[in-house]
Amino acid sequence: MARSIVFLGLTAVLLAAAPPAPAAGAAALSVTVDSFQTGRVIPPIYGFCVAAAAGRTAPGPNVSPQISWSHGPAGTASYAILAVDPDVPAAFTDADKEGRVIPAGVKRRPFYHWVLVDIPPSRTALAEGEDSNGSAAKPAGPTGHGARGLNDFGDGRAGYDGPCPPWNDAIAHHYHFQVYALDIAHPPLAAGFTGSDVRNAIGGHVLAQGEVVGLYALNPAVARTLPR
C-alpha cells in the first residue's frame, strides 16, 4: 500500500479528532492484548507498514490483534473499541524525506487506527484477525462483531488499520487500544462516523474503560531502543 494513503485523510480529519482522555467517574476495565503489554513494542504482524531494507518501509500484514477485556458493570449494553496514536506530526513537510528528521518537539495530533462500536455485551474479546487480516480496505458498517467506523487513513478505510508512522520520526509512537463499556447498545452515530464522532457520541454513556498502550517505530535508530 502506498504511503500516500496514510496521509490522504489527515488534513480533512485530524482537526476534528480529540486526544484520548479518561471519562469522568468511569470504572476500570481490565484490557489485555495477548501479543504485547503496555509500554512494549507492537509486533510487525499488526502493522500497516513494516521496516524494509529497500525503500525504508513495505506494506505490513495489517492483522488486527487479539484483544480481550473484563465484563463491564451492571447496565452494560455494548462495548466500543478505539485505537488512537496521539503522536502523529501535525505537519508532514519532512515526513519520509531522505536527509530529514522529524524532531521530537514538533506539534503532534491524534490519528485513529481502529473504530468499532455496537459490540454486543456478551462479547469480551475479539480474536486475532477478526477485524482485519490484510491490507485490503474494509467497508464501514455492521459486521458480525460490531459496527466499523472510518479510521483516519482516508479513502473510505474503516475498522482496523495498523501502525505506520514516518520512518524518519525521532520518537516512538504510542498506540492506545481503548475499550469502553457503554450504557447504550447503539451510540447515536450517522453513517460514515469517525473516531472523534464516537468519542463525542459516548460522552455521558461510559460505565467503564481501560486500555493497553503499545509502541511502534519505523526509524531504525528508535526501534532498536524499544522494550520487547
Please explain how this structure is put together.
The chain has one domain (3-223): Phosphatidylethanolamine-binding Protein (Alpha-Beta Complex). 9% of the residues lie in helices and 29% in strands. It has helices at 3-8, 10-13, 195-201, 220-223, and strands spanning 27-28, 31-33, 49-51, 57-59, 67-69, 78-89, 108-119, 125-126, 141-143, 146-148, 173-182, 206-216. The strands form 3 sheets. The protein has a 7-stranded mixed beta sheet, with helices on one face. Strand 9 and strand 10 (146-148) form a beta hairpin. The longest helix has 7 residues, at 195-201.
What distinguishing features does this structure have?
228 residues; mainly beta; 12 strands; Phosphatidylethanolamine-binding Protein; seven-stranded mixed beta sheet; globular; three-stranded antiparallel beta sheet; disordered N terminus
Number of self-contained structural domains: 1
What is the number of beta strands? Answer: 12
Task: Identify the CATH homologous superfamily.
Answer: PEBP-like
- The Cα radius of gyration reads 17 Å
Distance between the first and last residues' Cα: 27 Å
Structural class: mainly beta
The CATH class designation is Alpha Beta
Largest sheet: 7 strands, mixed
Give the overall shape: globular
The strand order across the widest sheet is: 1-12-11-6-7-10-9
Strand content: 25-35%
Q: Strands, helices and their partners?
A:
Layout: H1 3-8, H2 10-13, E1 27-28, E2 31-33, E3 49-51, E4 57-59, E5 67-69, E6 78-89, E7 108-119, E8 125-126, E9 141-143, E10 146-148, E11 173-182, H3 195-201, E12 206-216, H4 220-223
Parallel strand pairs: 1-12
Antiparallel strand pairs: 2-5, 3-4, 5-8, 6-7, 6-11, 7-10, 9-10, 11-12
